[in-house]
């Protein structure tokens, strides 16, 4: 079933800031994958904790909270969104407020990758859905590690330097039956990323793709079995 746009954050209400990545083809591809999951297995499994890393404008995190609500999980599902860029954290909160999404439904935090979620992960016994649209563009390594707009795209060698720091922690961050959704570019070598995740015992597949501005983008899904 095609996701209903009314269950997603509205572009007219997305907070914008010069140093924050605005929703683009990669964001839409990831939200569509998430919405399709909500229409099917997430509506049944009723996830308790969903985390978006690198939330940018908050488009994906806010949409997740709205999807949870639309599927009768507004009182069950807690979304957490974080970013290394303080302007993005503020934008995510503003986007949520513009959509009437409370700080309980979607909490925001500043910090590197999973670090701001350590307590929530420990309390919940892992997250049910972990989402990341990482900085995936191939750039010189020196461009990686900033906290401004360059953090949106600068991925260093093979566009993998930020993602590769996260991969070893994914399995332990997931609850039993938790899933990880991530955007990959063809240059990021998706087959190798899947091999790394499979070595950690996760089931992996590329669930959707699109061609955007001469880039081939994929959504990687990795599942932790119970
Ligand atoms: C491609 S943008 C995606 C933004 C948004 N999620 C979307 O899809 O529209 C990547 C985001 O990751 C953030 N980011 C980069 N490195 C990070 C890190 N180490 N920890 C957390 N966030 C990071 C950037 O600041 C940026 O907001």
TrEMBL record:
One of its GO terms (molecular function) is S-adenosylmethionine-dependent methyltransferase activity. It is found in: Nucleus. It comes from the Eukaryota. Keywords: Methyltransferase, Nucleus, S-adenosyl-L-methionine, Transferase. The keyword Secreted does not apply. CDD domains: AdoMet_MTases (cd02440). SUPFAM superfamilies: S-adenosyl-L-methionine-dependent methyltransferases. Its main location: nucleus. One of its GO terms (biological process) is methylation. GO terms for cellular component: eRF1 methyltransferase complex; nucleus. Belongs to the eukaryotic/archaeal PrmC-related family. This is Uncharacterized protein. It comes from Ostreococcus lucimarinus (strain CCE9901). The lineage of its organism: Eukaryota, Viridiplantae, Chlorophyta, Mamiellophyceae, Mamiellales.
């Amino acid at each position: 079933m095609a996701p209903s746009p009314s269950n997603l954050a509205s572009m007219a209400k997305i907070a914008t800031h010069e140093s924050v990545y605005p929703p683009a083809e990669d964001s839409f591809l990831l939200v569509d994958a998430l919405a399709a999951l909500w229409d099917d297995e997430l509506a049944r499994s009723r996830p308790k904790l969903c985390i978006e890393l690198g939330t940018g404008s908050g488009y994906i995190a806010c949409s997740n909270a709205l999807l949870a609500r639309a599927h009768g999980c507004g009182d069950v599902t807690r979304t957490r969104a974080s970013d290394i860029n303080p302007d993005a954290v503020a934008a995510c909160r503003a986007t949520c407020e513009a959509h009437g999404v409370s700080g309980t439904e979607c909490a925001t935090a500043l910090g590197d990758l999973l670090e701001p979620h350590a307590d929530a992960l420990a309390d919940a016994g892992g997250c049910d859905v972990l989402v990341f649209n990482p900085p995936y563009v191939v750039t010189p390594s020196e461009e990686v590690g900033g906290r401004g707009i360059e953090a949106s795209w600068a991925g260093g060698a093979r566009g993998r330097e930020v993602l590769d720091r996260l991969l070893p922690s994914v399995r332990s961050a997931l609850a039993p039956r938790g899933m990880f959704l991530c955007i990959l570019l063809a240059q990021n070598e998706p087959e190798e990323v899947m091999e790394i995740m499979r070595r950690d015992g996760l089931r992996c597949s590329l669930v959707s793709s699109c061609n955007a501005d001469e880039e081939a983008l994929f959504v990687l899904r990795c599942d932790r079995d119970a």
